[in-house]
Amino acid sequence: MDVIQMQRTWVEYTKSLYREGFLDSQFAQLQLLQDESNPDFVVEVVSLFFEDSERLLNDLTKVIDQQQGVDFKKVDAHVHQLKGSSSSIGAQRVKNACVAFRSFCDEQNIEGSLRCLHQVKQEYYLVKNKLENLFSLEQKIVAAGGSVPVDELGFL
Amino acid sequence: MYQNGSTETTPFRVLVVDDDRILRKMHKMMLTRLGIEVEVAVNGKEAVDLHLAGASFHLVLMDLQMPVMDGSQATKELRGMGVTSPIVGVTAACAEKAAFLASGLTDCVSKPLTISKIANYLPAPSNHTNN
């Protein structure tokens, strides 16, 4: 694939992520913060999100798996954090899954919480995969001497 | 002296107080790109300790829910110490906004933070970059 084709693929792929609700305008805000003096800013921030999310999902799994009763305060605290960080980077579907999760925490509903944990994990791994594909394409564009055509995302 | 207290020799300084490292990084970048000097604190206690050590800021952006010391308590302590800088709460927790404001905030905005939400507390655009 030549640079121009890769750039077109990048634009279409990015637009599809917004269209399908994986990303929202907050990710666009993140992209706007990146410039020549901070060319890796988006990757840096998203990497922090990946680290924090995986830690939180591990912690959530441990707390919900407790045999002696679930500490819903702890569960809610972790979900609140995950909701915050997913909202910060514009990972909309993860954020929405966290919103639903918190409702079940309020009700101290174990079954509902387990279902939500599964849903949050699913959405997280989906968006992680999508973003890794996006960054991989960006690397290829830059390696081929091109630039990432953020300006062509008309809604930014 | 420019609007909001900065001068040619004292750059506009903002303290970002948030336990979320992603938000600290994003908010810092948002402000740094405008030529604003940014310091960060990971919780309310750090923010208070910075002021006790003599630091001062033209603006404090304060998250609410933080470990060790939350934004409400930190704001009360800063006001109790005589800090008069604008302290703007930044929170996703709409239900607690009124209580947060009552702790001594100048204003409270909802997450996600954008420059337009705090524009009134920042220097006018032509004064952002200090030589």
UniProtKB/TrEMBL annotation, chain A:
Keywords: Acetylation, Cytokinin signaling pathway, Cytoplasm, Nucleus, Phosphoprotein, Two-component regulatory system. GO terms for biological process: cytokinin-activated signaling pathway; phosphorelay signal transduction system. InterPro entries: AHP1-5/YPD1, HPT_dom_sf, Sig_transdc_His_kin_Hpt_dom. GO terms for cellular component: cytosol; nucleus. Residues 38-141 form the HPt domain. It is found in: Cytoplasm, Cytosol; Nucleus. The modification Phosphohistidine is found at residue 80. It holds the Pfam family Hpt. GO terms for molecular function: histidine phosphotransfer kinase activity; protein histidine kinase binding. Functions as a two-component phosphorelay mediators between cytokinin sensor histidine kinases and response regulators (B-type ARRs). Plays an important role in propagating cytokinin signal transduction. Histidine-containing phosphotransfer domain (HPt) contains an active histidine that mediates the phosphotransfer. PANTHER family: HISTIDINE-CONTAINING PHOSPHOTRANSFER PROTEIN 1, PHOSPHORELAY INTERMEDIATE PROTEIN YPD1. This is Histidine-containing phosphotransfer protein. The lineage of its organism: Eukaryota, Viridiplantae, Streptophyta, Embryophyta, Tracheophyta.
TrEMBL record, chain B:
Keywords: Phosphoprotein. GO terms for biological process: phosphorelay signal transduction system. SUPFAM superfamilies: CheY-like. The modification 4-aspartylphosphate is found at residue 63. This is Response regulatory domain-containing protein. It comes from the Eukaryota. Residues 13-126 form the Response regulatory domain. Signal peptide: none annotated. It holds the Pfam family Response_reg. The keyword Nucleotidyltransferase does not apply.
